Amino acid sequence: MKLILTAAVDNLGEPGDIVEVKDGYGRNLLLPRGLAIVATRGAEKQIENIKRAQAERQVRDLDHARELRDQLDQLTGVEVKVRTASNGKLFGSVQAGDIADAVKAAGGPTLDKRRINVPKGLVTKTGGYQVKVNLHDAVEGKVNFKVVGA
């Protein structure tokens, strides 16, 4: 079965790669989880859009990672809005995607949510928090954000 990957899959490829896999693996794992689409002529035209979106989120090199770290250090006013109880306790949790969206809304760089490390149980109520962002193997940034009730 010929598929086009829409997300990175271990031991298989990166988004936009055309891969040949066994029918069962494609039908039962990759397609239902949205990790791939069937390779057709129309889908092959979408490869450019997939690769462009991936390049936008990707950290190019060590200097670019340092530049992003400096931007994150200078960034202020990052607020994640969530539903809360009257005592400030959260309904639900704050995910890495929520933080990435809040950084973008505050005028910061576009971050890949998979690079944001939110320890389990860190965010339990409103207030200020800090999480680490793995920008490169040698560069790690920090994002300070505030959780507020919506």
UniProtKB/TrEMBL annotation:
Q: Which GO terms describe its biological process?
A: translation
Keyword terms, alphabetized: Ribonucleoprotein, Ribosomal protein, RNA-binding, rRNA-binding
Q: What superkingdom heads the lineage?
A: Bacteria
Query: What is an example of a GO molecular function annotated in this UniProt entry?
Result: structural constituent of ribosome
Q: Name one Pfam family in it.
A: Ribosomal_L9_C
Keyword field contains Ribonucleoprotein: yes
**GO cellular component, as recorded:** ribonucleoprotein complex; ribosome
Report if keyword rRNA-binding is assigned. yes
Q: What does this protein do?
A: Binds to the 23S rRNA.
Family (UniProt): Belongs to the bacterial ribosomal protein bL9 family.
The name of this protein is Large ribosomal subunit protein bL9
**What organism does the UniProt record list as the source?**
Corynebacterium liangguodongii
